[in-house]
Amino acid sequence: MVGRKPGIIALFDVDGTLTYPRKAITPKMLEFMQDLRKVVTIGVVGGSDLIKISEQLGNSVISDYDYVFAENGLVAYKNGELIGKQSLKSFLGEEKLKELINFTLHYIADLDIPIKRGTFIEFRSGMLNVSPIGRNCSQEEREDFEKFDEVHKIRSKMVSILREKFKHLNLTFSIGGQISFDVFPQGWDKTYCLQYLEDFPEIHFFGDKTYKGGNDFEIYDSAVTVGHTVISPTDTAEKCKSLFIATKPGDA
């Protein structure tokens, strides 16, 4: 490694890309990312707030990466400094927000699923995170719901109803992770963070939910990014090695 390649940034989703869902980054992956940072500029863009991203990537995350975009970039950091913040509450207004939250809670109350826990709607700075089972579920319950949802399409059906009901608000509904989906104004998907990266002629994005309807799709499909679909942190590291780091035969 002989210094950074100019004009290139590698931008990463969190869950399923740098970590396993809701798990902490492994020491090996953390070490790899720091090695990669010596070669190219690196950034993180996640749907979660900074607290949850820090739980997974470490409390020093805003200094470990050149750019950290929480809530799809609605809360943006560069070199450890806050450079931008947007608010869903001020954008929609209290009445429209209340209408959306009330309908969503009524829908979940009538939903027949095996278990329900607590925190069905998490209010974030730039979005609502909606979980039919509730974010207070255990890891085992989270994994069971994910399997149940794959069969019964609980989240996708709910998204279809909310999208039709609130089409006048021009909202985007994006399924991500194992138990929830995000709700935010159109254009506030992960492409929102790209406004801070205009100085980079080459933007590589790595994510696992790059299919249409997944929360990585818009930035993966963007004309200004080179999109890479990954299936695990190990896969992410391997793709980055082949793209950015010249390895000798036999290197791990």
Automatic annotation (TrEMBL):
Pathway: Nucleotide-sugar biosynthesis; GDP-alpha-D-mannose biosynthesis; alpha-D-mannose 1-phosphate from D-fructose 6-phosphate: step 2/2. Mg(2+) binds at D13, D15, D208, Y220, T225. It is found in: Cytoplasm. One of its GO terms (molecular function) is metal ion binding. It catalyses: alpha-D-mannose 1-phosphate = D-mannose 6-phosphate. InterPro entries: HAD-like_sf, HAD-SF_hydro_IIB, HAD_sf, PMM, PMM_cap. Homodimer. This is Phosphomannomutase. It comes from Platanthera zijinensis.
